[in-house]
Amino acid sequence: MFDSLSDRLGGVFDRLRGRGALTEADVRAAMREVRVALLEADVALPVARDFVDQVTEKAIGHNVLRSVTPGQQVVKIVSDALTEMLGSDQSDLLLDVTPPAVVMMVGLQGSGKTTTAAKIAKRLKEKDRKKVLMASLDVNRPAAQEQLATLGTQTEVATLPIVAGQRPVEIASRAMQAAKLQGYDVLILDTAGRLHVDQALMDEMKAIADVSNPAEILLIVDSLTGQDAVNVAQSFSDQVPLTGVVLTRLDGDARGGAALSMRAVTGKPIKFAGTGEKLDALEAFHPQRIAGRILGMGDVVSLVEKAAESIQAEDAERMAAKLAKGQFDMNDLRGQLAQMRRMGGLGALAGMIPGMKKAQAAMASGAVDEKILVHMDAMIGSMTVKERAKPALINAKRKIRIAKGSGTTVQEVNKLLKMHLEMSNAMKKIRKMGGLKGLLGMMG
Ligand code: GDP
Predict the structure, then answer these.
(1) pLDDT at 314 exceeding the cut of 80
(2) Annotation-wise, does 192 bind a ligand?
(3) pLDDT confidence bin for 340, thresholds 50/70/90
(4) Are 69 and 127 contained in the same domain?
(5) Is 80 exceeded by the pLDDT of residue 275?
(6) End of a domain among 29, 60, 86?
(7) Which residue spans within 7-74 are E strands per DSSP?
(8) pLDDT-derived band of residue 123, with 50, 70 and 90 as boundaries?
(9) Are residues 249 and 225 in the same domain?
(10) Fewer beta carbons below 10 Å: N end or C end of the chain?
């Protein structure tokens, strides 16, 4: 998802980061490119314009342009603005009411409403251990109620028995009563859709909301419909008190325009993203992580937070200088190992660095325990100064000597060498992203 936008912005940022000094004109030129990238991603024009204006104003400030890492600072400003555009905080479902908490699903036909109802039910049941009842109020489409019943069987979530001939509001009242009597925590009401927004549909939604007093009214929209999805959301939110939006088919959405403009246009948070047809393909929508993905930074923020806790500032400077020269020798690895011991093992860290998964796999197990780190330190300690600076020198004979000297085995020496290789490759990747100093710079 967001692939093309991510590529475009990546190009702009690489150019920004590649320069030591930035002028106001450089920033303005970059921001024009950002604007084009957003419009190509199908972001609503006023939203793209506001975004770029706001970022430009911040980015041409003196502190930014005069800072040591101006490119990095600009990227951070864009990243923050993107997070804000997507909605600043991740919003969970608010179901803290006297049970049953009603979740009402609204939206056009084919938007993925029924599927999403089942996905949410499954999630509430499995993750939050809620007792969930689902009811379909769709009496327009002949098979709608059966479809929900089938999904209920698949997810092992109870569905309200179907009674032929009842109107939507009657079904809603019956579902409320059943949920109360049978002690359900949550009642999910799947309403009827239409091909287009029309007044009859809106009136029906309002009548259902009146009898069921929902804790959440979620609008389900298909992200592939881009700005239409945003317009639909606008029409619904004018008439029905929506509490949030679920974007479906984000798995097939390379542009992301709906996701990017939804919050700004409707003021409603995106609560979930549908990412596939399977019933577990539902993700909580974390604006910050999505912004990170769009900017191709992995979960760098968490990584830097963790690193900043234990890496001394001078260490970081020194590492940055080495990285800039493309050097990462055994002495550096030794320093890193010592840091890992302080940080609680490589396992936690490796998952966060893009490209580090491999280094992790090179280790015997996913998590590095204290003993392995101690062994590695001993092996490096048994190397000559030359070997440490140039690990490529270490041939079979030298491996045997190192293993003996450190009380380890040749196999372990091999693992260490492999790890060094993987790590220097990962370091090269980080360097491309602006270096460790750059990463730290991102934290402001
Ligand atoms: P409704 O008319 O709004 O109730 O829509 P449905 O729930 O029946 O969904 C219509 C189609 O979209 C079905 O084939 C679903 O499997 C599919 N669908 C729903 N959500 C997603 C999603 O997030 N990703 C993908 N790829 N397909 C989805």
Answers:
(1) no
(2) yes
(3) low
(4) no
(5) yes
(6) 86
(7) none
(8) very high
(9) yes
(10) C
Last residue of a domain, one of 251, 285, 319: 285
CATH number at 62 reads 1.20.120.140
Q: Which atom of ligand 1 is nearest to the CA of 144?
A: 4
Same-domain status, 78 and 21:
yes
Locate 28 and state its tokens.
């303005």
95 found inside a domain: no
Give distance in angstroms: CA of 250 to centre of ligand 1: 11
Residues having CB within 6 Å of any atom of ligand 1: 107, 109-115, 193, 248-249, 251-252, 274-277, 281
Residue with tokens 């798995």: 251
Q: What is the number of domains present in the chain? A: 3
What's the whole-number mean pLDDT along residues 365-373? 57
> Which of helix, strand or coil describes residue 136?
strand
**CA-angle at 230, arms to 225 and 234, nearest 5°:** 140
In a domain, 76, yes or no: yes
> For helices 396-406 and 410-432, what crossing angle results, to 10°?
100
In this structure, the answer to whether residues 309 and 390 fall within a common structural domain is yes
Residue 29 domain-assigned?
yes
Residue 411 pLDDT exceeds 80 = yes
Q: Which residue has the higher pLDDT, 278 or 322?
A: 278
Please indicate, yes or no, whether the overall pTM of this predicted structure exceeds 0.90: no
Q: In the structure encoding, which two tokens stand for residue 174, read together?
A: 């019956």
| Residue 119 alpha carbon, nearest atom of ligand 1 | 20
Q: Say whether both 312 and 393 belong to one domain.
A: yes
Q: Which residue has the higher pLDDT, 331 or 346?
A: 331
CATH code for position 190: 3.40.50.300
CA atoms within 13 A on the CB side of 254: 5
Instruction: Identify the residue whose C-alpha is closest to ligand 1 atom 5.
Output: 112
The whole domain housing 420 covers: 300-442
Res 315: pLDDT? 59
Both structure tokens of 230: 């945003």
- In tens, the pLDDT along 190-210 reads 999 878 778 888 899 999 999
Q: Is the pLDDT of residue 221 over 90?
A: yes
Q: What are phi and psi of 160, to 5 degrees?
A: -70, 130
Q: Is 56 annotated in some ligand binding site?
A: no
Which of 243, 299, 295 lies closest to 271 in space, CA to CA? 243
Mean pLDDT over 279-285 rounds to 89
